[in-house]
Each structure stands twice: as structure tokens, then as C-alpha cells.
């Protein structure tokens, strides 16, 4: 049996010693708002009545936010000058 998105989030949380506040702030970096109670539903056991399955979109947003949190925002590459057309 493979890892679920919930398992991946749990393992990252433990490995990086992240608190609920940290995860909420990381998600805010990519303009994704979530409450602590919604977040806690992802960390519950599967047989708990308030357990929620972590959707791909939330995990993707968390990972993108984590990149910004650890590395900082991506620098824009300078655009090459546009060539002018001569008639």
C-alpha cells in the first residue's frame, strides 16, 4: 500500500518540525487560506469521523509554498531585448 497525500504531509511536517501555524503560513504564501481546524482534519486517523482526505490541489499548494518558504520567491529572469523589425 502506497502513501496517501495525508501521509506525505504528516511526514514532511515531522521531518521539518512544522507546527500547524507554520503550515497555515506556508499555504498563505501561495494565496491558499486554510484554518487550523481544517488542517487538523488531515492529521486525524482514517477511522475518525472528522477525518478528511487531503486533495492533490492542497498538497501541491503546500509544496509550492514550502519552496517559497525555504528558498524565497523565484527571481525573474531578465527578458532579452526585443528585436525591431526593419521594413
Describe this structure in a few short sentences.
This protein is mostly helical and 87 residues long.
Q: Care to describe what's here?
A:
- This protein is an all-alpha fold and 87 residues long.
- It contains four helices and no strands.
- Helix 2 crosses helix 4.
- The chain is elongated and about 70 Å long.
List the helices and strands and how they pair.
Blueprint: H1 5-15, H2 20-28, H3 36-42, H4 56-71
Helix pairs in contact: 2-4
Question: What characteristics describe this protein?
Answer:
87 residues, mainly alpha, 4 helices, DUF1456 family protein, YehS-like
**Structurally, how many domains make up the residues?**
1
Q: What is the number of strand segments?
A: 0
SSE succession: HHHH
- What percentage of amino acids are in beta strands? under 5%
Low-confidence stretches: none
Q: Tell me the helix content.
A: 40-55%
Overall pLDDT confidence: 90
The whole-angstrom Rg is: 19 Å
- Taking the alpha carbons of the first and last residues, their distance comes to 65 Å
- What would you call the structural class? mainly alpha
Number of helices: 4
Task: Name the overall outline.
Answer: elongated
Main sheet: strands, sense, barrel: none
Pfam family, one: DUF1456
InterPro entries: YehS-like
Organism: Vicingus serpentipes
Protein name: DUF1456 family protein
Amino acid at each position: 500500500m502506497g502513501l496517501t497525500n495525508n501521509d506525505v504531509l504528516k511526514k514532511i511536517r515531522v521531518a521539518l518540525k512544522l507546527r500547524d501555524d507554520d503550515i497555515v503560513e506556508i499555504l498563505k504564501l501561495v494565496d491558499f487560506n486554510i484554518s487550523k481546524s481544517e488542517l487538523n482534519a488531515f492529521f486525524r486517523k482514517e477511522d475518525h469521523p472528522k477525518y478528511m482526505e487531503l486533495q492533490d490541489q492542497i498538497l501541491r499548494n503546500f509544496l509550492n509554498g514550502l519552496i517559497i518558504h525555504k528558498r524565497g520567491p523565484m527571481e525573474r529572469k531578465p527578458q532579452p531585448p526585443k528585436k525591431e523589425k526593419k521594413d
